[in-house]
């Protein structure tokens, strides 16, 4: 089956569990985790694709995909329900030689080479579905072409003390990568890979096929494919990004990323009409703050009802805060109910959880963030 | 409800609400922060399982087309049936003499005739409520009536329905005459201008009236046939508002601040749907102070807001005070300004240190796009 040719196909890796998010990803994949009052994490990547005119997008799913699949649907919230292209959800499948799970990021792309080939693309854009940022991929593609690169890796400067957590690029004055170090102890540069790659499809295909034959390979872009490309002297360049970018890997960083949205100088502008972040829109009324309600420094989505006090918090669709209840520095997920006189501080209250009247959870001065869901809710 | 089709007739009197209907029909007046007036009747029909719906317009359809699109938000983008917007067929002579809605129906007779449904539900958009039309149709079938008119019994202290048609109903529920609510009786059975009948009868009425030339309006035609047809009333008991004047629009908006009213109106017998706009959640800053207000997405609130309906993407800057008002989409109110008892249409920009106040009985209306 040959589809209309596309210059570039975007492949979004969305199969990860995000195990460090613990109970938050018990039943859903990390890209499906709710974020910022109305979004799910993958909305940022999908909206970037849409806003960057990426017309063919594949989303690779594996871990707990039901909610993610339902969320993506036919792609219409991101304008990705197209006659030619649009979004395709790509779970592991059974072929003539049997079926197998995706072994690693590179293997996931290898298994879907036919899908990519059907668009006859010149380039492939590899993305991760679990990062929060706004980026114009079409600019990165322009850069890739200008440089005559065979691979381009988007990088961001990270604090030197955190370099050990990232894949670090060592580049010459022309941004050409001469060395790639995965999680180095003594980094020579602080340019960290954001997990966003553009490859010439023909070149990548060769490397994927070869990598698949190597039984010792982890079939991973960061560990195997990229270092190999650099070592064989391919033209691999970095593309510098200096906007907001966050990998919400842990409960603390998830909480922090939500709090970042409340800052006056938040670098992640959700209100920019030229670069909207799209999501599935709920069908519910605007929120209501009653005469006794008090809301400061917070984000509230549609359907919320607030009778109590809300400060420094993010409230998702349909969250309810009762009379004399206090919600401080917290994240309240869709449909959660904080009953009268309950006090919630520095806590993530998961979807549809009811916090009983008068309970007290969390402490705003604590270093820890509490997570309350329906299973561990003793309040 | 495969046997029922819906017709929404937008030939509505806009004289008393003209300040906010210059550029749009009453049907697309913004209401409740993110909705339009027509969302109620459309959603009520869809929630009853009706999936063949037509909207008969009276011009000014840009705003309507923009809002309705393919009908997707109401699940009306269907392969079979779905949503039809039928504009008046204008010829030179008609421009001078207005011919009434029957003429409009006649011009689109084929659509009505070739629809597959046996029954038709006719309505306007300006009576807003949350009604179960399934029940109404069942009542219509069981009562054996030719026509069923939906009405609500109202105590007369409700000034909002003055001048509306009122049904005189006998003990068997039959409509014996139709008059007007003049405000001098204790109770009125206010006609909600929603009629149920067989499609064949509707077609007959259109043809007959135009042949005989005795009526130009459907309402008139039905009233003239009360003797020959069995016309019954179906009582609706929920919240009802009528958006036909600035005063009524304002009062109804203030009703929506009552959480019980808004729960009923927007959800009770089915949710009210509308076009979504992908706005981010509303943002409140350290200086914001908001009470008894409905706030839509995309707003940035830094000032003081009391008893207001705030539409999508409105900005209320630090030091601004807004009370007892309706602020429509994308308006901006700057530092130091004070607004009370006002209706700000879309894209209004109130610059710093202005004071604008209307009266509860006579709210101040600022037209779309004005900068003060």
What does this structure look like?
The complex is a heterodimer of chains A (379) and B (372). Chain A is α/β, with parallel strands linked by helices. Chain A folds into two domains: 8-261, Spore Coat Polysaccharide Biosynthesis Protein SpsA, Chain A, CATH 3.90.550; 288-372, Hexapeptide repeat proteins (UDP N-Acetylglucosamine Acyltransferase, domain 1). In chain A, 19% of the residues lie in helices and 28% in strands. Chain A contains eight helices and 30 strands. Chain A has helices at residues 42-51, 66-72, 105-110, 113-117, 137-147, 201-213, 221-231, 251-260; strands spanning 8-13, 34-35, 39-40, 56-60, 86-90, 94-95, 98-99, 123-128, 131-133, 151-157, 167-171, 177-182, 191-200, 236-240, 245-247, 287-289, 294-296, 298-300, 305-306, 309-311, 314-315, 320-321, 326-328, 331-332, 337-338, 343-345, 347-349, 354-355, 360-361, 370-372. In chain A, the strands form eight sheets. In chain A, strands 5-4-1-8-13-10-14 form a seven-stranded mixed beta sheet. Chain A is globular. Chain A starts with 7 loop residues before the first strand and ends in a 7-residue tail after the last strand. Chain B has 372 residues and is an alpha/beta fold. Chain B has two domains: 4-268, Alpha-Beta Complex (Spore Coat Polysaccharide Biosynthesis Protein SpsA, Chain A); 283-366, 3 Solenoid (UDP N-Acetylglucosamine Acyltransferase, domain 1). Helices cover 23% and strands 28% of the residues of chain B. Chain B contains ten helices and 28 strands. In chain B, the strands form seven sheets. In chain B, strands 5-4-1-6-11-8-12 form a seven-stranded mixed beta sheet, with helices on both faces. Chain B has a five-stranded parallel beta sheet with strand order 14-17-20-23-26, with no helix packed on it. In chain B, helix 4 (101-107) packs across helix 7. Chain B starts with a strand and ends in a 6-residue tail after the last strand. The interface between A and B is medium-sized, with 36 and 33 residues. Chain B: Residues 280-359 form the Glucose-1-phosphate adenylyltransferase/Bifunctional protein GlmU-like C-terminal hexapeptide domain. Chain B: This is Glucose-1-phosphate adenylyltransferase subunit GlgD. Chain B: Belongs to the bacterial/plant glucose-1-phosphate adenylyltransferase family. Chain B: Keywords: Glycogen biosynthesis, Nucleotidyltransferase, Transferase. Chain B: One of its GO terms (molecular function) is glucose-1-phosphate adenylyltransferase activity.
